[in-house]
């Protein structure tokens, strides 16, 4: 698993990077370097594994036409083979998704990065699915597929996923928002028998196939399926905060907010729950910034919370 995975902690990553930069390791001799084995059948086994994870017949009956934009040659080849096996028509391009939608009719479109990990999703009208909706959409699909009825989401995920889980008699597991914490928790559940949820967190192609299956089963367009997700309003803002000020700002916020009537959580950063929403102030571990995540009963209220805590952070820095 790569550096964003669940099997290597951030502290281990830093130690490895430090050893590499200092060249504090022994070089292997030529005789000790193993021979390279090219596993040419990996894409075939990967495709078959995905095919076996979905109801192929129900997808075939819908006769989807799919638009995919990717610059990854291997990814393009795998998707082509996969969609053929699923009975889908498709167009694979390196061009702009929005432009391509003007020249054809598609059930959905997606842009997948060359590593096959990240995806932008577009509905049948060529509208981009909001990135804040993605954790909720993925969570909904996980709840439908995981035998444990548990879904793992970052601490910053909107409350809509909790509403959905409760309606399905499921459970939400919230982790710290970094990728290592999220993937570690997902791996725990996968090892306990949760059914095929790991690929949905790190494999854009697997997520695409599962989206096709769920809209085929429910006989809905992608836009209709997304409309079934409860409304939520979440905002994110990045505020400049020098490294030397981060501790002072967080201490002041904890002291200040603990005096009031709002509930304060310190699971990650500081989260303040208001009557009609919440705000999370999270110091970034890699950049000289703080991030404000806010959710409210309306878009205006979420923006108001964001501005309110932005001003508090600025005031705390000046003290």
Please sum up the structure shown.
It is built from 13 helices and eleven strands.
What keywords describe this structure?
319 residues, Alpha-D-Glucose-1,6-Bisphosphate, Chain A, domain 3, TATA-Binding Protein, five-stranded antiparallel beta sheet, four-stranded mixed beta sheet, 45% helix
What does this structure look like?
With 319 residues, the protein is of the alpha/beta class. The chain has two domains: 186 residues, 3-Layer(aba) Sandwich (Alpha-D-Glucose-1,6-Bisphosphate, Chain A, domain 3); 86 residues, Alpha-D-phosphohexomutase, C-terminal domain (TATA-Binding Protein, 2-Layer Sandwich). It is 45% helix and 19% strand. The protein is built from 13 helices and eleven strands. The chain has a five-stranded antiparallel β-sheet with strand order 7-11-10-9-8, covered by helices on one side. Strands 2-1-3-4 form a four-stranded mixed β-sheet. Strand 1, helix 4 and strand 2 form a beta-alpha-beta unit. Helix 6 runs parallel beside helix 7 and helix 12 crosses helix 13. The longest helix is centred in the C-terminal third of the chain and has 20 residues. The two termini are 44 Å apart.
């Amino acid at each position: 698993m790569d550096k964003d995975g669940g099997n290597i902690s951030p502290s281990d990553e830093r130690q490895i990077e430090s050893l590499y930069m200092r060249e504090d390791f022994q070089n292997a001799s030529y005789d000790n370097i193993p021979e390279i084995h090219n596993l040419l059948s990996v894409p075939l086994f990967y495709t078959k594994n995905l095919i076996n994870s979905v109801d192929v017949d129900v997808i075939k009956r819908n006769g989807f036409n799919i638009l995919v934009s990717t610059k990854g040659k291997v990814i393009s080849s795998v998707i082509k083979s996969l969609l053929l096996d699923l009975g889908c028509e498709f167009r694979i391009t390196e061009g702009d998704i929005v432009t391509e939608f003007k020249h054809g009719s598609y059930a959905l479109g997606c842009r997948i990065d060359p590593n096959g990990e990240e995806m932008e999703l577009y509905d049948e009208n060529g509208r981009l699915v909001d990135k804040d909706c993605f954790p909720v959409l993925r969570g909904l699909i996980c709840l439908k597929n995981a035998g444990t009825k548990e879904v793992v989401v970052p601490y910053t995920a909107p409350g809509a996923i909790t509403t959905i889980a409760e309606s399905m008699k499921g459970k939400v597991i919230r982790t710290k928002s970094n990728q290592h914490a999220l993937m570690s928790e997902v791996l725990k559940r996968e090892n306990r028998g949760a059914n095929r949820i790991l690929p949905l967190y790190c494999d854009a192609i697997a997520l695409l196939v599962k989206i096709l299956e769920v809209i085929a089963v429910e006989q809905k367009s992608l836009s209709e399926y997304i409309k079934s997700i409860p409304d939520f309003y979440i905002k994110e803002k990045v505020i400049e905060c020098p490294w030397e000020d981060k501790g002072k700002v967080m201490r002041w916020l904890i002291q200040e907010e603990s005096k009031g009537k709002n509930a304060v959580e310190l699971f990650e950063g500081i989260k303040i729950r208001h009557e009609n929403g919440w705000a999370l102030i999270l110091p970034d571990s890699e950049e000289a910034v703080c991030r404000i995540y806010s959710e409210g009963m309306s878009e205006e209220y979420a923006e108001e919370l964001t501005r309110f805590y932005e001003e508090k952070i600025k005031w705390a820095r000046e003290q």
